[in-house]
Specification:
This protein has 265 residues and is mainly alpha-helical. The protein has two domains: 41 residues, no CATH class; 173 residues, Up-down Bundle (Rhomboid-like fold), CATH 1.20.1540.10. Helices cover 58% and strands 4% of the residues. It has a two-stranded antiparallel sheet. A two-stranded antiparallel sheet has the order 3-4. Pfam families: Rhomboid, zf-B_box. GO terms for molecular function: serine-type endopeptidase activity; zinc ion binding. It is a multi-pass membrane protein. Belongs to the peptidase S54 family.
């Protein structure tokens, strides 16, 4: 006798010989279960969790609960610093360095900024240039962008992967400047930030998520770099590519994701 598909939100137990199906998509077999509620979830409804896979409803419930806890704790629009340690750490370093730039009359800028001609003798500038900014407006725009993408990406990637993506993206941006604009001084975290946006795109796309809005955001900012003089589009493009590739490598190398793909075959 035919049975109605399980309702979403209803915990079920598989019957012998039955193929579990996704409550949201009853026409799709679902051999993976949500680690939180135990319901079967198809590949479109899976969200990678720190342990196992969760369904979209459990993730939404957890996000709502976390939002309520933050409001109750008086955190307002901004989460506590401990929630995004790498993002807040980068912001803190950039602010301190900018204050030193103001106090020392740009001597710090001269010591940390990157120029391709100095790569062989002072290669650390490829990384330290990310923490130096040309003006207060430059600093504020970059830190705001970093905070926005950090809120979305650091909890998903995990702090150490997020830090690796940022660092490699900064180096990728500097490498692009070395190859495409060897006579240019560069400062700013935008290469690393573009890398984080690229990583967010790759992370979302790899899981079958919607990326249309993110593509538009990235494209608009890339065009802005080409049109407005004084902006290193080379660093933006280099960081974007390296960030996306790094996130993909993390996913491909993940034993958990490989096991999930094997179960879905």
């Amino acid at each position: 006798m035919d049975q109605d598909p399980p309702r979403y939100g209803q915990r079920i137990e598989d019957q012998p010989g039955e193929v579990p199906v996704c409550p949201r998509h009853p026409d799709r077999p679902a051999y993976v279960r949500c680690s939180r509620c135990g319901r079967p979830v198809c590949s479109s409804c899976q969200v990678q969790a720190p342990v196992g896979v969760q369904c979209v409803d459990c993730v939404h419930q957890a996000q709502q609960a976390a939002g309520g806890a933050r409001r109750g704790g008086g955190a307002g629009l901004f989460p506590r610093a401990g929630v995004l340690p790498v993002t807040w750490g980068i912001i803190g370093v950039c602010v301190v360095v900018f204050l030193l730039q103001v106090v020392t009359g740009d001597r710090i800028t001269a010591q940390l900024a990157y120029h391709p001609a100095l790569t062989a003798v002072q290669p650390w500038r490829m990384l330290t240039s990310a923490f130096v900014h040309g003006s207060l407006t430059h600093l504020l725009l970059n830190m705001y962008s970093l905070y926005i993408v950090g809120q979305a990406l650091e909890p998903r990637l995990g702090s150490w992967r997020y830090a690796v993506v940022f660092a490699l993206s900064v180096l990728g941006g500097s490498a692009a400047v070395y190859l495409l604009s060897p006579g240019t001084w560069v400062v700013g975290a935008s290469g690393g930030i573009f890398g984080l946006f690229g990583a967010f795109f790759a992370w979302t796309r790899f899981r079958g998520g919607e990326t249309g809005g993110l593509v538009v955001l990235i494209a608009v900012n890339l065009v802005f770099g080409f049109v407005v003089p004084g902006i290193s589009w080379q660093a933006h493009v280099g960081g974007l590519i390296v960030g996306a590739l790094t996130a993909l490598l993390f996913d491909v190398a993940s034993p958990r994701l490989r096991a999930r793909r094997r179960r879905l075959r």
